[in-house]
Specification:
Radius of gyration of chain A: 56 Å
CATH superfamily of chain B: Response regulator
CATH class of chain B: Alpha Beta
Strand order of the largest sheet of chain B: 2-1-3-4-5
Largest sheet of chain A: 6 strands, antiparallel
Distance between the termini of chain A: 140 Å
CATH topology of the largest domain in chain A: Beta-Lactamase
Order of helices and strands of chain A: HEEHEHEEEHHEEEHEHEEHHHEHEEHEE
Distance between the termini of chain B: 16 Å
Number of domains of chain B: 1
Strand content of chain B: 15-25%
Shape of chain A: rod-shaped
Oligomer: heterodimer
Number of strands of chain A: 17
Structural class of chain B: alpha/beta
Number of helices of chain A: 12
Number of strands of chain B: 5
Helix content of chain A: 40-55%
CATH topology of chain B: Rossmann fold
Strand order of the largest sheet of chain A: 2-1-6-5-4-3
Radius of gyration of chain B: 13 Å
CATH class of the largest domain in chain A: Alpha Beta
């Protein structure tokens, strides 16, 4: 069977063509009267096609908007738009259907000019809700990702800022600079209108504005905030960090004069701990209501804790330094006193020696000479004998005084240490002394003070040898060592147990050791029973004043 | 031993009056010794030595102005005067300083007897008179 030609078959209607389409199609004449609409129209737009429509005003109360969400005006309706000669192609609109569902439509429209019909418009609406929603979701997610990145960046910035603050504290930055640094860090990170650090004053009630930014000129460093009923006071009392959403509705405390004056609405604060009582607090404020986040308070707490650690460490350092300095001062005073004392002793010895020399010794000598003259003139043999017997006694008395003078005032030191020590040893001979060997390798004589110290120490050591060692030989070695005089005195006597600490001549040795150490020298003694004794010391040429 | 034609003229410098008087009594009481004067300080000793040119000047170490200074100046300005040091104190330091300043001998008061002092004065005078005879004391 052969189909008849197309022209001979019954006519294909527009409905036959348009109804199977999935996109809505509507044709209207130039007056907006409906010519035809396909089935999909109602399915997509959610209402039956109105009989007449020229603008959105005549549509049922629908909200139609463009992609940006801007409502469409009456003349923007596709049919109206193409009638005025505008091109409507690939236009995306949103529409809230009468059933409340929002759909996204892709709209195309065209004008048809036919002499027998006049001007017609044809519009198509494709439901792109699905695609549009996917795009919307992608946009939201992208925005969320961007937001997250911003948060991460801010967190990173906060961490880096806190780390830097910690580093500065560690390298010993002074508290005032550290506070300025912390204020700048909070200001640049949270970007509030005001940042401040309050320090609790010793009275425990008022707080001083120690550092800050944003405040009226002249307040930082001088302004005092009363702790009474204010947030500062509350904070110090409760010792807790806090967020203040809005000071006007805050019931726990009133705004301080400082905050009122600066019209502060919101704030965030963290306590700066102290050793016993809090040091104070760190706070940031805004003039507009701002919702500070939990992250923000964590950040503030970290900055405040870094400051607290630094201050506590700094205080501990300072206390330790002070203690050390006090100890040094005491020690220095003690040394000066002992030094002075030993000078006074030396001076006093010299004075006594001079007195003996100038009076007693002279008188004795004059008396001796006079006695000899008298004895010459006496004729009585008995008298002459007894008188002449007095002379040696007077001479002996003089000799004793001279020894005493020498002990007190070692004039022989002018000849050098070696000769002076030998002279001393001979002058003070007991008759049963050990043999003395002096080995002096000093190329030139030391300054008087050092020489005298070495001499006195040797004197003490030699006296100990004489009194306790029962030695047959004692050696004194003198040599120059490191800008000082090194001395070694060794005897071959009975020795003693150093560990008992009760060596013979103990007091004298302690005094000797003390004198030498004060002068910046060193002193040691070694001995063992039956091994003899070795005293070793070193005295600097230039002594510590 | 040479015989002297005149007394040995002696100057005494000591700041102690007791010593001065004992020494002047000793010198004046000895035949052959004559005292030109006693003084109590170095400058007076130098001045008296220059003006009276004694044979021997007996100087104390510790006199105002200094025994060392007096010994050095008298030795320099009065070549004919021998200097003897008579000190109350006999440590080697003092002795070496006086001997270094020109003293012929260093005697210690109370150790040297009056006879020792006289003998030393006479010996020093001989050397002053005839420097070749130094062996007498050295």
């Amino acid at each position: 069977m052969i189909d008849p030609p197309l022209s001979e078959r019954p006519l294909l209607t527009l409905e036959d063509v348009l109804d199977p389409l999935l996109c809505a199609v509507v044709v209207r004449d130039s007056s907006g009267r409906l010519v035809i609409a396909n089935k999909a129209y109602e399915e997509i737009l959610g209402f039956r096609p109105p009989e007449v429509v020229l603008s959105s005003n005549e549509l049922p109360s629908l909200s139609i908007a463009d992609v940006e969400g801007k409502p469409l005006g009456p003349t923007d309706w596709p049919a109206a738009a193409v009638l005025t000669g505008r091109l409507v192609s690939d236009l995306t609109l949103s529409l809230i259907r009468p059933d409340g569902r929002k759909v996204w439509l892709r709209v195309d429209a065209a004008r048809i000019e036919k002499p027998q019909f006049g001007t017609l418009t044809v519009s198509t609406f494709i439901d792109v809700t699905h695609r549009q929603e996917a795009e919307e979701t992608a946009r939201i997610e992208s925005a969320r990702a961007t937001q997250l990145l911003t948060v991460l960046q801010r967190l990173h910035q906060q961490q880096a800022g806190i780390a830097e603050l910690g580093r500065l504290a560690l390298v010993g930055m002074a508290p005032p600079e550290l506070m300025d640094h912390a204020v700048a860090l909070v200001a640049s990170t949270l970007k509030p209108d005001y940042v401040r650090i309050l320090e609790l004053l010793p009275d425990g009630n008022n707080l001083l504005l120690r550092a800050g930014t944003g405040w009226r000129r002249g307040l930082v460093g001088t302004a005092i905030v009363s702790g009474e009923n204010t947030q500062a006071g509350y904070l110090i009392e409760t010792n807790e960090d806090m967020l203040i959403e809005d000071f006007r509705t805050e019931k726990r405390f009133v705004r301080s004069q400082l905050l009122r004056e600066h019209r502060v609405r919101s704030g965030i604060r963290a306590v700066i701990r102290g050793k016993n009582t809090p040091f104070g607090d760190l706070a940031a404020y805004t003039k507009q209501i701002r919702h500070f986040t939990e992250e923000d308070i964590i950040f503030m707490r970290a900055v405040a804790n870094t400051l607290a650690d630094a201050f506590i460490g700094h205080q501990a350092d300072r206390e330790q330094e002070q203690t050390l300095r006090r100890l040094e001062e005491v020690d220095e005073a003690r040394q000066r006193l002992l030094h002075r004392l030993s000078n006074i002793v030396e001076e006093e010895r010299k004075r006594i020696a001079n007195d003996i020399h100038d009076s007693s010794l002279q008188v004795l000598a004059g008396l001796g000479m006079r006695l000899q003259l008298v004895a010459e003139k006496v004729d009585d043999p008995d008298q002459k004998k007894s008188l002449s017997e007095m002379s040696p006694a007077i001479a002996e008395a003089g000799q004793r005084l001279r020894r005493l003078i020498f002990d007190l005032r070692p004039d022989a030191l002018e000849l050098g240490l070696g000769p002076a020590l030998r002279f001393y040893f001979e002058q003070t001979s007991t008759g049963v002394d050990p043999e003395l060997a002096i080995d002096s390798r000093l190329s030139e004589e030391a300054p008087e003070e050092a020489r005298l110290m070495v001499y006195r120490a040797c004197q003490e050591a030699l006296n100990n040898v004489r009194k306790h060692a029962r030695a047959s030989r004692v050696t004194v070695s003198l040599e120059e060592v490191d800008d000082g005089i090194g001395v070694l005195i060794h005897d071959d006597g009975v020795g003693f147990d150093v560990s008992t600490g009760s060596q013979p001549g103990h007091i004298g040795l302690v005094a000797m050791r003390e004198r030498i150490q004060i002068a910046g020298g060193r002193f040691s003694i070694s001995s063992a029973p039956g091994q003899g004794t070795t005293v070793q010391f070193w005295v600097p040429l230039r002594q510590i004043e | 031993m040479k015989t002297r034609l005149r007394d040995v003229r002696v100057l005494v410098a000591d700041d102690d009056a007791l010593i001065r008087s004992a020494l002047s009594d000793l010198i004046e009481g000895r035949p052959g010794l004559a005292l030109v004067g006693t003084v109590g300080d170095a400058e007076s000793a130098i001045a008296l030595a220059i003006s009276s040119r004694p044979d021997v000047a007996v100087l104390d170490y510790r006199i105002p102005g200094g025994g060392v200074h007096a010994a050095r100046e008298i030795t320099r300005l009065c070549p004919g005067t021998a200097v003897l040091c008579l000190s109350a104190y006999g440590d080697p330091g003092t002795a070496s300083k006086m001997l270094g300043a020109g003293a012929r001998e260093f005697l210690v008061k109370g150790v040297s007897t009056n006879e020792d002092i006289v003998a030393s004065i006479l010996a020093a005078a001989r050397i002053a008179e005839d420097p070749r005879d130094r062996s007498a004391v050295e």
